[in-house]
Amino acid sequence: MRLFSPLTALFLTATAALAAPPCGGSFSGFVNGLKAEATAAGHAPATVDRFFASVRQDPKVLRADRAQGVFQLDFTTFARRLISQDRMNRGQSNARKYDSTFDRIERDYGVPRGVLLAFWAFETDYGAFQGDFNTANALVTLAHDCRRPHLFRPQIMAALTLYEHGDFDPATTTGAWAGEIGMVQMLPQDILDNGVDGDGDGHVSLKTSPPDALMSGGKMLSHLGWRKGQPWMQEITVPARMDWSLTGTESPRPISDWAAMGVKPRSGQWQATNLPASVILPQGHNGPAFLAYPNFSTYFEWNQSFTYVLTASYFATRLMGAPIFDAGNPDPGLSGAQMKQLQRKLAKRGYDVGKVDGILGAGTRAAVQAEQKRLGLPADAWPTTTLLKALK
Length: 392
Description:
- The protein is mostly helical.
- The chain has helices at residues 14-19, 27-40, 45-52, 59-66, 75-82, 85-97, 99-108, 113-124, 135-144, 149-164, 188-194, 210-223, 255-261, 299-302, 306-319, 336-348, 362-375, 385-390, and strands spanning 133-134, 174-175, 233-237, 253-254, 264-265, 276-280, 290-292.
- Helices cover 47% and strands 5% of the residues.
- The chain has a 5-stranded antiparallel sheet with strand order 4-6-7-3-5, sandwiched between helices. Strands 1-2 form a two-stranded antiparallel ribbon.
């Protein structure tokens, strides 16, 4: 389920970027280039030969990379599809079963158990399905593909290092189509940087050991910027009228400002009054509403899909005792074809909406909100047929 994050490009060093052979061309020639790069970096030639001996191009990986239609769903539909009562029950059961592990994570890294339980559930259904793509093949296939080679090349070298440590088998290690491994789906470089031997057996086994996977995930979130002791999100109610252009992840304000506008917690009290926060309206001002605290931004270091991030963040609050969200009565959204039409219109107006894919991502949301404000429509970043028709 995880959408590969472009932020893993941070693991690519300037030297590797300069030395990297080009993408594309003959696959065997590309692999030979990788072998030369690995040997030049100091890996033993015999080890490099063994690592790459079984690597094959996998067209299924490329099809998966280009077919992520699930992220075209609106938040309410997506959340209801992913969050079942069974997942709630198993999450609570796992919280009890691994209580001591979660206590250690909260003590050492400050990440609440609900946050990791939600990722564990969404990434692999609590470890039940961790992906059946050969990881080495996936990484090399995606590095050879010229869409985002710089994101995947460093992961190949990280996998080679794991192989040298005895923690990766290029012939048998499997995971997600984008190269993530284990119960919480971590990339090879993530494992090198944040792998933790949570069960004390001397190995970091993210595929078979929940303590290892959960501890490693907690360390990674801490490394990505999670702030200990701070909330991440809570549900709110919004007034019938306010300046909707102030909403969105890029417009944090003091809680006092939101309260003065009529924004209120849906239940209980504000989780923090000393932190800036953003009002998020995933389906416009008539739909569900949430307040996002600074920790919410850490989710985007894990995954770049707005819908996935919001759903994972919400599920974490549910696992920590929050009620089911109020779906409200949002204005009907656009179909996939209409969303693509809208993106093309916005692109012609000079907005950077990224790929025309029918997905309401951050760039499209920002463009929608700007055009809504220009046209005098409620600037809540939720595209409707009214907006589509207004964009001549």
